[in-house]
Amino acid sequence: MQNIKGKVVVITGASSGMGKAIAEELAKNGAKVVLGARRIEQLQQLVEEIKSKGGEATFVQIDVKNKADLFRLVNTAVEQYGKFDVIVNNAGVSQLSRIDELDIDGWEEMIDINLKGVLYGMAAAIPVFKQQQSGHIVNIISTSGIKIVPMQGVYAGTKNAVRTIAEAFRQESDGNIRITGISPGFVKTDFADNIKNEEMKTAIQKGMEQIAIDPIAIANAVMYAVSQPDDVEIGDIVIRPSKQN
Description:
Layout: E1 8-12, H1 17-28, E2 32-37, H2 40-52, E3 56-61, H3 67-81, E4 86-89, H4 104-132, E5 135-140, H5 153-172, E6 177-184, H6 198-211, H7 216-226, E7 236-239
Parallel strand pairs: 1-2, 1-4, 2-3, 4-5, 5-6, 6-7
């Protein structure tokens, strides 16, 4: 983990759940974290917690649906620390329903956050990484899409789009910019809170109670990926509860 010390890491969706765990663990290991999310109070609290433990952190209120916000987040990292090493595209949302229920608003929200939000993060990071001739993109994806199931069609579609784009980018890259995809299964987060379909919300919450793993497992995977030497790229990591089908 020595390679983590001093790295400047930007994290989206950092106010709770996996994003929060990733921020805490990286800061504990000496990274300087720049946190972005919509919920300003939670961000402030997290930054204070990290600083109280001797870590370095700052935050920017952002919405990943606005590409200008992602550029502002990345610029904050560069202005504050003079460089920027890793972007963790973690912000995500899920609206689970049958396709014939035609939850078009839900589809658009998932496309805007899960897909375009990741692309905006990459678009903000890549010019800086090119200039530095180094950088690392970490996309938090999902086990949805690895296993296709009903009710998750569009959600899985947005996640698989990220997987496809990342693989193309990996092949296009000359190795200076590395890219890693981490696909979590059931993780203890507030992920289900935004689901409008009550039946699905209850099912997901029940699944989380019974088998979900601690978000620290995802944070450990991020640390493993970003702590590798410059000539080593970790491609795809799938992390799910051992009981998950």
